[in-house]
Structures are given as structure tokens and as C-alpha cells.
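Entry 14. Structure prediction run on the chain below.
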Amino acid sequence: MLKLFRYFKKKDVGLVLISICFTALCVYADLTIPDYMSDITRLIETSGTEMSDILSIGGKMLAYALLSMASSIVVCICASTLSSDFSARLRDMLFKKVQSFSMNEIGHFSTSSLITRSTNDVTQIQMFIVLGLQMLIRAPIMAVWAVFKIVGQAWQWTLATGITIVLVLAAVIIILQFAVPKFKIMQKLTDRLNTVTRENLTGLRVVRAYNAEGYQENKFEKANADLTDANLYAQHAMAFLMPSIMSSINGLMLVIYWIGASVIESAALGSKISLFSDMVVFSQYAIQAIMSFLMLVMIFMILPRASVAAQRINEVLDTPLTIQNGTEKDGMADKEGEIVFDHVSFRYPGGQDDVLHDISFTAKKGTTTAIIGATGSGKSTLINLIPRFYDTSEGTVTVDGRNVRDYDECALRNRIGYISQSAILFTGTVSSNVGFGDNGREPASEEEIKDAVETAQASEFVEKMDGTYDAYIAQLGGNLSGGQKQRLSIARAIARKPEILIFDDSFSALDYKTDSILRKELDEKCSDTTRIIVAQRIGTIRNADQILVLEDGKLAGMGTHEELMSSCSVYQQIALSQLSKEELA
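Output returned:
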């Protein structure tokens, strides 16, 4: 928890100091009021007392009560301001940290867990700060001050109060022994519940297609029941806390008055009034002391979850980045658009075997390089090395004559138009999706967006949506078909006007006619752009300038379609599985 507070700014520290000062002022006012109660009690029992004397003391009591109220308001304002600002800053830091993660770090945390850490965990910290500034600071000050006021009074009262405090602390410790372990696992159970919910919502079509609603409901009920059981166990344990403390307070009051009655009865007549007054004051101080421990208990109730939340937040913020950003922004002018793989091998973190083995090839500017191979042969992994989603284990990848490790990541990716294997669209409009991102230049104009959509063969269905490019796109493109999403993803890459276009099996949802027309448009309008195409269809890649054939992460063949048909058995098998010999001829 303390480690997380290193992100406090000077303003935050100032708010804490102000809270401490006004908390001390509030405690001073609260503990001064019983002294005036003692004076009023004494005046009432004294003959010849004027009403003006009582009203004067009553006015002072009112003044201190108002001072206590005003001080509490200031502390509440400081607590709410600090907690809101700090939690907003934490969410911002978490979001930016995740944005800087490579695929290695993303794989370490689940998506649902990252969402929970940015929302539920930060909320736990916010609650702790709010209650902490109001109670955690106030409780020890009040406890020490109240005990100091008590010491020196009748030893019987002091002993009774001390025993009560010990009993209260014992009850708190015993109850927390049962509750704290459950509080600590509740955050992980919340992760699990969010994971199940997210998977169900994301895969709702599949769930319904396979009539798996019952299975998903059982899965959710299990996760929900585990979280509920842990919560109930912790809350049931904590349920004994408040009755125990209130019983201790009421019991202490009875003991104080019982002892007071005995002491007053045996005292001389002249000191009875003074002892009665002391008893009234002592009872108020004793209550204040016990209540201070009650406030600490309330903090202890949320501290375990807040501590776990802080640990989980720190885990994200302190995660070292495996891919360090470079500084170079420019490549070599005579190598523009050129991609070179030089004896590249790659192994996933924690993996025992290389996924790619000694891959070498060169893609010249304006050429089309296709990559084909069986599922799991390493095609997507290979192209993910170009925009540095991963770094090579061995060998180098160069773009524009410069090692991709040396590039500033923004400068490198501004050169690339990337179309992922799964078409990803964002909530918004056609224009906002096609003109998405920062390409290092002026944002794509309306005309450039329209031209990119036409090139991607998407203008026909876009104009049918509502006749404009402001047509609504649902989350993840939920209101579009697979082919429509792919074409808009391709349009988004084209609109960047990049040096390099990377297609990660991005034609799979297109019919053969649309596929053929789109590739012809790319040949005409992106003739100076280097194209890297991962595909499963021979028809999509047979006209490529060079084709790489991958088998188990190794380069099984490289050349044109005709060359591979005569020299590469792996390519021949793939080709003959899709087309007849006559069609291939």
C-alpha cells in the first residue's frame, strides 16, 4: 500500500497535511466539550448559580461543536478530492502502462484481470483513502488524547476502561483472523467472474448456436457462488464485530456508573458533586476512546482488500517492458520500403522450442511477398516481428535499412499499415474507423477516407448503411458481416498511405470475385507500397513477386508460384489440395 502512495504529488501531500491539522482540531473540539459538561453539572448542583453562567458555558459548548463540524467538513472535502484525483490518476497510469505493453506482457495478464485492476481495484484504493483520511488519522489522535484525559481519574474507572479496550482489541484480532484471508481472495474471484461474463458476451452467437446457455449459466453460477460464499464468510465474521464493540461500550458505561455510585456513596458530602461531575466527564471520554478503536476496526475491514488491490495495481505498473523503445525516426533513403529478415529465429517467452528457425528473405519496395503454410507454421508470428509486437530471439529485422529495435515505435509503425487476422473495429462511425490512429501526418481527409473505402471494395455496403460515411459502427463491428469488417480494416490501413502493407490472412472472409478485384486495385493504387500477405488461398498469392513457404517454423521454399510448383513439395501439396492440375496450369 505504501509503495502505491509514491505516486502522490505535492498537492496530494498538502491535502493530507491539511486533513491532519483539521482532524486534530476536530478531536480537540470534541474532547473539550465534556469539560464544559462537567462545569454545567457542577453549576446546576451549586446553589446561587445564575442562568447566565450556564448559558455562557453552553454557548462555548456550541462554539466547539460548530468548530468540530466545520473541521469535519474540511477533512471530508480534502478526502474526497484526494481520493477522486488519485484514483483517476491511477486509472490513467494503468491505461497508459497497458498501452505500452508488448504482446509478451499482455499475455501475462488476462484481459478481464486488467479491466478489474483498472476499475474494481482502483475503487478499493479510493474507498481506503476516503475512510483513511477521516478515520485512520482521527482514531489514534482521539485514542491517545482521550486516554490522556482519563489517566489521573479514579483508578477503578481507568482499570475498567483499560480492560474493555483490551477485550475489544482481542475480539478484533480474532475476528480478523477469519475474515482477512477471504478478503484477500475476493479480488481474484472478481477477476474470474469478469472473465466468465466477458467470454459469454463476446461469444454470445456461438453460445446460442450450440444451445450452450445452460452450460454458460452453470459456469457463471459457479464463479458467482464462489465470490458470494467468500464475501458472505468474510461479512459473517465481521458481523460479530459491531455487536461485540457495542456490548463492550454499554458494559463499560454500566461499570463506570456502578463504580461511580459506590465511590460517590462513600465520599464526603462536599465532594459528591465533584465526583458526580467527574463520572459524567469520564464516561464521555471513555466512549470517545472506545469509538476511536471502532473507527480503526472499520479501517481494518477494508484494509485487506485495499492491500491486495494495491499489490495488483503495483504488479501492472512495475511490470518491466521487454521491448524498449528506440530513438531513430528515419530510415535510409535508398532503402525506403525495404524489409529484410536476416537469420531470424523466435521463441515465445517461457517456451522451450523456437517457433521460427533461421528465416532470411528480402522484400523490395513495391513488391508483393506472400507467406503460406499449414496452421501453426509461424506465419502470423513472422509478420508480427515487423511492427515489433515481438522482438526476435536471434537475427535482425530491418525496415528501410534500419534495425527495427533502433526505431522509435511510433516512427516505425507510421510506416506500416497493418490488417490483423481478426478484423477489429471500434465503436463509432465508418469515418472514425477508417481514419483511425495517428499516421505521423495530417489526419486522413474525407476524400482520402472515401478513396480508401473504394479501394477496399467497401463503398457499396457503406453507402447502403445510411448513405454517408458517418454510419454507425457497433462495438467490434457487431453490426457488420465478417467480409465487411475485413474490407473496412483494409481501408483503414490504406488510408494511412504507408510504405508497407501487412495483410495477416485478411482476405479469408472475401468471396473470390471481391478478393480478385481488391488485389487489382491494390496493384494499381499501391504500386509503390511493399505488401506482405499471409494467406491460405493459392489464388490470392499466386501472382506475388515471391512466396515464402513455412513448415514447422522453417523456410521450406521461396520463389514465384511457378518456381515453387516445380521445386517445393510442401507448396505443391497445398496447391493441389485447393486447385486441380488444369487450374494450376
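The radius of gyration is 36 Å.
Filed with the rest of this week's runs.
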